[in-house]
Write a structure and sequence with these properties.
Layout (H helix, E strand, L loop, with lengths): L5 H10 L3 E3 L11 E3 L1 H20 L4 E3 L8 H6 L2 H4 L1 E6 L6 E3 L22 E4 L3 E3 L9 E3 L5 H6 L1 H8 L5 E10 L14 E11 L4 H18 L7 E5 L11 E9 L2 E12 L1 H10 L5 E2 L6 E2 L2 E8 H12 E5 L5 E5 L10 E5 L6 H13 L4 E3 L5 H10 L4 E5 L1 H6 L1 E6 L5 E5 L3 H10 L6
Parallel strand pairs: 3-9, 19-20, 19-21
Antiparallel strand pairs: 1-2, 4-5, 4-6, 7-8, 9-10, 10-16, 11-12, 12-13, 13-16, 14-15, 17-18, 21-22, 22-23
The structure holds glycyl-adenosine-5'-phosphate.
Length: 442
């Protein structure tokens, strides 16, 4: 198995329009990234794949889309104003800032080389704040949410009263989150603006351990279903000194990224911490009345929390392969699961003339109704295939002279490079079947 380096990934992402540095023409903004034509398709498809897995095919999970800016009391109640901090030190000489837990305080500053220049560590809150409205006073301070989860907790009663859900049930949300991270290395792995895929599952106290185990298993199975290599996925349990302020127990699903094993998703047992605190701070009743037993309680919560933008990096790392071919040739191929590949089908007339381009265009128009399609009529066919391999397009259709005679085309499969002669009337059926039954071979 070839291991991709971060340099190879960053270079492919730029070259093929997956990810660009933010504000590049002005020299870039550290830790911020833009998603190009391929990147936005990949990100949206991963988001939709997660959404389908976590809502559409789950009878007991509903969706939500809460605002990024929320009442400032939310973050007092959640504990983020008090606890969501990193210990930071500054270099007195060059003013560079570091996380105290990631640097040797006795050593020289890694930026300017000055010894003994670090300040004492002090806690630095990771939330970005701004002012709502035209008056800049402390009463108008709002925070950009550092996690989407709180939007779910504060809407717990609304969803309960309007959706006919009964415990156990979940609420899922996808959206942007913001953290003023000092260490924003490793490309899109850790950024100040990112997206989360979160689900809060509300359960009866005492049943939380069973559901915690259930969601741990369900979430690692999900990555395998997405075609991610099993040997690059593992669990890591949080020790009691690592637990977030809201968690009773937590496991990370880690992935072997180009820079090593790192967190991809967290599964957290949050008890009644959040609902209990919101009940206290808002003065509103957030209890649940069991319709059968008439018991009333504040539900416990099991959370699954993944980074969408971090999943994009994981999917890119996992898909990347440089393959040696027979005859000394080589190719770069992105082995995306066809359900999340930015382009599903490439369409190529063998030559432009003799009506082949028109025929290919007719097929293209038909398939566009259903798939993301890329039409390419220029250059040698082998080169056109390679370009599609590099952006991970799982299917290629070539229209040639035989197509005019018998309505068949060549269907090429990205992974095996196998070419099969098929009827143009069966294309959707074959492609859909391949997407449904996709298994990664290497
Ligand atoms: N609601 C719980 C929560 O936010 P977390 O472990 O702080 O938990 C969950 O974050 C996930 O969000 C992480 O596993 C990671 O995938 C993603 N994430 C967190 N901070 C991030 C950052 N600065 N950049 C990109 N992704 C981040």
């Amino acid at each position: 198995m070839s291991e991709v380096t971060m340099e190879q990934l960053v270079s492919l992402c730029k070259r093929r329009g997956f990810v660009y540095q933010s504000s590049e023409i002005y020299g870039g903004l550290s830790g911020a990234w833009d998603y190009g034509p391929m990147g936005v398709e990949l990100k949206n498809r991963i988001r939709d794949y997660w959404w389908k897995e976590m809502t559409q095919i789950q009878e007991h999970i509903v969706g939500l889309d809460a605002a990024i800016m929320m009442h400032p009391k939310v973050w007092e109640a959640s504990g983020h104003v008090e606890n969501f901090t990193d210990p930071l030190v500054d270099c007195r000489q060059c003013k560079s800032r570091f996380r105290a837990d990631q640097i040797d305080l006795e050593a020289a500053c890694p930026v300017c080389g000055t010894k003994g220049s670090f300040t004492e560590p002090r806690d630095f809150n990771l939330m970005f704040s701004t002012h709502l409205g035209s008056v800049k006073d402390s009463g108008s301070v709002v925070y950009l949410r550092p996690e989407t989860a709180q939007g779910i907790f504060v809407n717990f009663k609304n969803v309960l009263q309007t959706s006919r859900v009964k415990i156990p049930f979940g609420i899922a949300q996808v959206g942007k989150a913001f953290r003023n991270e000092v260490t924003t290395k490793s490309f899109i792995f850790r950024t100040c603006e990112f997206e989360q895929l979160e689900m809060q599952f509300f359960v009866k106290p005492g049943e939380d351990e069973r559901w915690f185990e259930y969601w741990k298993q369900a979430r690692i199975d999900y990555y395998r279903k997405l075609g991610i290599r099993s040997d690059r996925l593992k669990f890591k349990e949080h020790g009691s000194d690592e637990l977030a302020h809201y968690a009773k127990a937590a496991f990370d699903i880690e992935y072997h990224f180009p820079m090593g094993w790192q967190e991809l998703e967290g599964i957290h047992s949050r008890t009644d911490f959040d609902l209990g605190r919101h009940q206290e701070y808002s003065g509103k009743d957030l209890t649940y009345l069991d319709p059968e037993t008439r018991e009333r309680y504040v539900p416990y919560v099991v959370e699954t929390s993944a980074g969408l933008t971090r999943t994009v990096l994981m999917v890119l790392s996992d898909a990347y392969e440089e393959e040696q071919l027979e005859g000394g040739d080589s190719r770069t191929v992105m082995r995306f699961h066809p359900a999340v590949a930015p382009i599903t089908v490439g369409i190529f007339p063998l030559v432009k003339k003799d009506g082949l381009a028109d025929l290919a265009k007719t097929i293209e128009r038909r398939l566009r109704e259903k798939y993301q399609v890329f039409y390419d009529q220029s250059g040698a066919i082998g080169r056109r295939y390679r370009r599609m391999d590099e952006v991970g397009t799982p299917f290629g259709i070539t229209v040639d002279y035989q197509t005019k005679e018998d309505d068949t085309v060549t269907l090429r499969f990205r992974d095996s490079m196998e070419q099969r002669r098929v009827s143009i009337h069966q294309l959707e059926e074959i492609i859909d079947g391949e997407i449904r039954s996709y298994r990664r071979e290497s």
